[in-house]
């Protein structure tokens, strides 16, 4: 058997650098420092971040695979602007995942799960009262991720994690179009009430309503603005 291949230290450093640039770009997109449809300049980003163009390009490719950027031949990378049809697709998939997860969770709802989810809603409400939009998004996603975690299907959770990159854009749109973003946080208590009932049908109705309201706010907001896909 051949000896294991040792990864060169330069490769590890480069990989970490790409992830750091990708994280920076993700936050910048969520906070709308880069607007939907805006072209990203590799040259300017490399100067701003103090890195070469190579990790910027690799980070952009990574974000393209996550659905946050799109590339155009000979023109570069652009911030993705989800249209109403694409938003419907994202929420449709999210509903499929979370509907199944909450019904599984209702069958195995434990004191540990209840305490963790209740604590997370309280954290989410605290975040909603702040001016930190990024934190609100992350705490919102963390609640739903915990719900899938306690549902006990790791592949279901993995599918949700793959969707969260696009969901960040969607939740950003919700907070932009919702009249009172703090009510988004409070609405999670209704999911806890449904889980406490122990009734799968009640849980399904609760998640259908919860995600349906979010979907309607986003799709209506995008439709009214006529936001095109770049």
Task: Describe the protein's architecture and organization.
- The mean pLDDT is 85.
- This protein is elongated.
- It has helices at 9-30, 42-49, 53-65, 84-107, 111-128, 133-151, 154-177, 182-186, 188-197, 200-225; strands at 69-72, 76-79.
- Strands 1-2 form a two-stranded antiparallel sheet.
- Helix 5 packs antiparallel against helix 6 and helix 5 packs antiparallel against helix 9.
- It is mainly α and 230 residues long.
- A hairpin with a 3-residue loop joins strand 1 (69-72) and strand 2.
- The protein contains ten helices and two strands; from the N terminus they run H-H-H-E-E-H-H-H-H-H-H-H.
List keywords for this structure.
230 residues; two-stranded antiparallel ribbon; 3% strand
Short description:
The chain has helices spanning 9-30, 42-49, 53-65, 84-107, 111-128, 133-151, 154-177, 182-186, 188-197, 200-225, and strands at 69-72, 76-79.
Beta strand count: 2
Low-confidence stretches: none
CA-CA gap between termini: 51 Å
Q: Give the structural class.
A: mainly alpha
Largest sheet: 2 strands, antiparallel
Radius of gyration from the alpha-carbon trace, in angstroms: 20 Å
User: How large is the count of helical segments?
Assistant: 10
H/E element string? HHHEEHHHHHHH
């Amino acid at each position: 058997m051949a000896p294991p291949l040792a990864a060169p230290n330069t490769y590890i450093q480069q990989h970490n650098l790409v992830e750091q640039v990708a994280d920076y770009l993700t936050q910048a997109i969520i906070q709308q420092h880069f607007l939907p449809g805006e072209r990203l300049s590799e040259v300017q980003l490399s100067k701003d971040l103090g890195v070469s163009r190579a990790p910027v390009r690799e980070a952009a490719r990574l974000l393209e695979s996550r659905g946050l950027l799109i590339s155009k031949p000979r023109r570069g990378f652009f911030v993705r602007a989800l249209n109403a049809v694409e938003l419907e697709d994202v929420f449709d998939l999210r509903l499929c995942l979370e509907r199944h997860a909450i019904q599984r969770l209702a069958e195995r709802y434990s004191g540990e799960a209840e305490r963790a989810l209740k604590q997370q809603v309280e954290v989410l409400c605290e975040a909603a009262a702040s001016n930190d939009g990024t934190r609100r998004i992350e705490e919102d996603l963390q609640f739903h991720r915990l719900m899938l975690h306690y549902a006990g299907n790791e592949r279901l959770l993995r599918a949700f994690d793959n969707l969260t990159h696009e969901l960040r854009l969607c939740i950003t749109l919700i907070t932009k179009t919702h009249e009172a973003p703090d009510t988004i946080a409070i609405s999670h208590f209704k999911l806890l009430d449904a889980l406490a009932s122990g009734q799968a049908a009640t849980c399904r109705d609760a998640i259908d309503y919860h995600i349906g309201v979010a979907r309607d706010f986003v799709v209506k907001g995008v439709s009214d603005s006529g936001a095109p896909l770049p």
